[in-house]
Amino acid sequence: MPAVIIPEPPPIPKWKRPAKTEQELEWADIKVIDLSKFDQPGGRKELAEELRDAVHHTGFFSVTGTGFSQDEVDRQYDIGQAYFDLPLEEKGDRRYRCDFAQGNYFGYRAANEKTIMGTDVKDNVESVNIPKFIPANENEPFHPYLRQYQPTIEDFSRRSLELASKIFTLFSIILELPEDYFSRRHLYEDKSEDHLRYMIYRPRPLEADARVENTWSRAHTDFGSLTLLWSQNVAGLQLKTPKGEWKYVPPVDNGIICNVGDTLDFWSAGYLKSTIHRVVRPPKDQAHIHRLGLFYFVRPGDTVDIKPAPSPLLKRLGLIDEKSEDAAPVSGLEYVRERVKNYHNHNDYADMKGKKFRVGNLEIEDQAD
Ligand SMILES: O=C(O)CCC(=O)C(=O)O
Ligand SMILES: [Fe+2]
Asked: What ipTM score was computed for the predicted complex, to two decimals?
């Protein structure tokens, strides 16, 4: 039998990590958790205790000791950058775009197609969302350019959820639930709207930014369960503190910034906090940079019910009662698709301050600042 020859993917330029800002900014206090302790005796319990305050109060924290080397992470940036450097006709091929009318976020989202905040200033974000590598996703958009690098991307995608799974274990311990309570609702082999994402913000002229209050991504909470955001040096991401102040999320070398999304907030009756955040024009010394980001968005499994978990802690705190368990559940897929439609299926990313909407019995306030 002739040997199967797998072609080498085309070589691509090395992406260069931008330097940190020298500007004095108001940084948020971000807890750093060393996940290399996870498998040591007593390690999980210790980590869960270290994490408790951070997830309860700010919903943002960072992890190190993740098992991803800097080279592996940078390789993902190389691939993302190379893809975004393709001509729009190629990267934006209709067959591989997000279908927002269906609330389907897999595939490519182009910049400059929507105006923002009721002005004629255009949205400056491009992204590509890569579905999990499971048979059920075979027909979901995955651009052939990216497919050339599938072994590297697939490995990264699988390991991202393995990492998230450790964090879910810590959340389960915090809530006194069986350790696998959340991880089994987020299995790689089960269909869900999870995606690995490359995302790039293109700088806009100062005057254009001024007309939209320097907004690059409007204030929001994340739709899914957990977001992994590989730490990056271009300042711009801000979270809203419990006191209502906007603070910059600081870079954490070799770390991943994690934030709790709305589904975990629902499951924990608000104990695990899904925090409002936004992205603004970077400081002067970084304002010219095309800000490339790398993420893994964990969504609930399609068939998983979203309703408060039977946590002894939440019961003691009076956050749930017997009735909570009888609540009519909303499924993961129904919920996520509705969120994506509500957010993206418009010609304008309007100012959504104070607007609420419902999916089943879940009340969502997309922008609450
Ligand atoms: O670009 C960032 O740093 C954060 C983006 C973000 O919040 C999101 O895409 O949900
Ligand atoms: Fe977000």
From this structure: 0.97
